[in-house]
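In this section we walk through a basic example: taking a raw amino acid sequence and producing a predicted 3D structure, encoded as discrete structure tokens. The instruction is simple. Fold the sequence below.
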Amino acid sequence: MKRRIAVFLDADIKKETFSFDELVIRTKEVFDKNGMPAVITLILEWMDGDLCDSLTGVQTKESLASINVKPCCKTPYFVRSSREPRRIDSTIGKIKFHWMRLKCKNCKESFIPLRQFLNVKLYTSHTLELEKIACETASHQSYRRSAKHMTDIGGNPLGKSKIHTWVQKTDSAHLKLEQKELVTIVADGTGYPRFKTNAQKEDEKKNPKRDADNRPLEQIRVILGIDKHGKTIPMGVFNEEKWNEIGRLVKRANHHPKLKSKPIAELLVSDGELAIERGLGKLAKTQQRCQWHLTYDLKSVMKYQDEANNEETRKVKDQLHEIMRIPLPNEPRDKVKTEEILNLEVSVFNAERQMNALVKDLKEKQYFQTATYVENAKAKLFNYVRVWIRTGDAPPKVSSIIERMMREIKLRLKRIGCNWSPKGAAQMTKIILKRFTNSNEWEKYWSDTLKLDGKMKIEFAGAQFVN
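The resulting token sequence is shown next.
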């Protein structure tokens, strides 16, 4: 079906000066509020008329199969029954139109051809492209601001509770714990303020549940995977399970219950939290202590526990930076000469020997807490080099890939959102992870859901004066 559609505008221009910006804004307002919804309404009613004309009378299985309609009886004979109004919200406003219902004279069954042709669900009140933009908007700002923003761009009032419902029910944020051929697993967690009823608030005033560090009452925990091609894969989001429970869930999802479990990755990278190392340690062949966190957390240990001055602390941090500086070759492992690989092994050996010397020097200076801190981290600082030597894959030596994600999560859950339910916090975190770590998969999901296969094409044919 091909047809040219004419759009008529009445332009009332005074013989007075006006700005170019006003011309652009007024034209945009006309098309946003009236023009585009009117064009879509015209296209829908034109399609509805053509479909009803082709289906009126005696029909065959082939003619009905073209619009995904099953024959209602052996000899379907359709006639026009009623013209029903419909209104659907979209990003360009409310689209109001009518579609025809056909009724079979023989079996009295009825259906709407346009609804079947467009594959519109029975009680659909909004377009999926509006839901997609609403989910993306809500991942950046509060539901209240998102509702105002969506109202401004769509021209029709949209409540924050409706956006909240769409976010909670969307399948676009689905994550899979089952993964294959991972090189690295990265894990981290953060706190968020929990939604509390008035009774819970009164109870907490009498019996405080916060610990000595004044941490939030709820924790959100995130696991990311990195495959051989360097692609980041969001694996899971948890807020009620501890790290050891999460480790069991990941293990159960990736192994048959009757077979012996094997590590699903070469390396586990973490910030040194013991709960992560113990809970997820069996998922990887070896572990990597984040080198950035080592030097970052050193200050609090050395300055506040060993009472060292700023100059001594800075000196030890500079020593650690110099010791840990072992870059990996930029070329693939099979193109690297054997001497360079041997030099890497020697560099790791020398670095660990220098770490031992640093620990000994710290103990001689009576910095026992700092010495213990460095000594405990020493064995896991250079495993990224060993993984490269063994497999040729270049895993990260820091957890920066997940730190950026945690920054986005904290920004949304802590600074913008005030109180969250566990389910709501987990769902919002999944959307943020999917959008920032795997944007191609996010767009692919919506492209498949919206069915953007190029079967509908509209081109601008030009503009001219009509007398």
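Looking at the output, two observations stand out. Confidence is low (pLDDT under 50) at residues 211-216. The radius of gyration is 31 Å. In the next section we compare this with other chains.
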